[in-house]
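My hope is that you will study the record closing this message with an eye to the fold:
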Amino acid sequence: MTGPVAAGPPAGGPLPDRAAPPLARDASWHRLHPLSPLVRAGRQMMSLLVVLIGIAVLNQHQDGNLVADLVVIVAALVGGFVSWLVTRWQIADGVLRIDTGLLRRDSRRFPLSQVQAVDVVQTGLARLLGLAELQLRIAGGDSARGGRLACLKLADAEQLRKQLLALAAVPAGGVPAPATVPDPDGQAASAPAARTAVRTMFRVRAIRLPVAILLTRSGAIGLVVAIAIWLTAQFDGSAGVIAPFLPVALGVAARLWRQFNGEYGTTVALAQDGIRLRSGLVQTTAETIRPGRIQAVRLVEPLIWRALHWCRLEVDVAGARQRNEDRAEGQRLRALIPVGSRAEADLLIAELLGSPPLPSQPPPVRVRWKAPLSYHFLSWNGDDQYVVAARGRGGRPSPAIPLAKAHTIRWGDGPHPRRLSLATVHLDVAGKRVGVKVEDRDSAEALQILRVLPDLARAARSRAR
């Protein structure tokens, strides 16, 4: 594992050794790859081409406007070049600093000790050019203004990710301790090989994933829209009548494609630097979640999946929603297992959390008057380390939260539960995308839970330090 950043060369001294990637060897400033503007503009490239083609068609008999079109193109290229020219980054004193801006300077600093996860993302165009974007997720940070280095060479991005994770594990002013393993004589010895050992825990099946997506709510909506379009075209006989359905159909198709593209080829491996995830078909993502940064784990079993004994395992990592995510994507957690067997999920949960209790405590019988359909699926359990709850009839999510990660514990009820002497205890974590609701308990039991959990959470945090 790479050590902390060393001091840079004195002024006028020799340049750093360029044989190694120009990453965190010194505290000097570095630039992004010169093709970065092209990659960043890749998503808007098709829209720009459509606009330019439309302008060219409209102006085909007006040769004088060709110069104006060329000026627009040149201005866009110059703007991208200027943006690249005024952007630089540096690692020094355990902080990643990114400076950008021409007229208005924007200097951002990201303490590496607060890094929750480090991602290496490749869009389709970036893969063709051998480039990648490095994304940092910071605890409590705004992902719309987060740590992003777009773009670097793929090898440099991978190496920088390793170094950032190594520096993130170093206390302020500290030095990373070498990993040790016992030698044949029983003595502890440093083991570089042990630091790089990677154990693969899960790999999604390529055939199972598209079937599973089609058997979800989004897949059902897509099927209904497709049938509606087909029936309308059959009865009317005119292709123009399906035009109002096209925006809906395209929206559903785009959502299904984003999920398939993002979860295709998901591989989960355990290493010393954390949980390593790789996924993606066109746009690939290589993510490393540091040890202890998982805020919550949720097991989801959609209704139709249960007949096939399939489930989905998701984790919540602290950090704000990405700028380019819509609301549905922002609420979707990171899937360690997009679709897999319950045995695979239980094996991975055991690696992540140890042995959390099963949600085996049912609610009072009078809850049937409040929730007759979901009564049989409401349960919870807890010990001195975890709280687990199950609810819902369709997806039947079962979130589990380590008490050491609980930020707030609160009481909730309403007019109808109050009349039935019922209440709900909420546990929230930093991720804010998932929480545990000990739902519809007897008021006396809920009050007892509310009194006991804060002490258990404080004890769990003390043990985790």
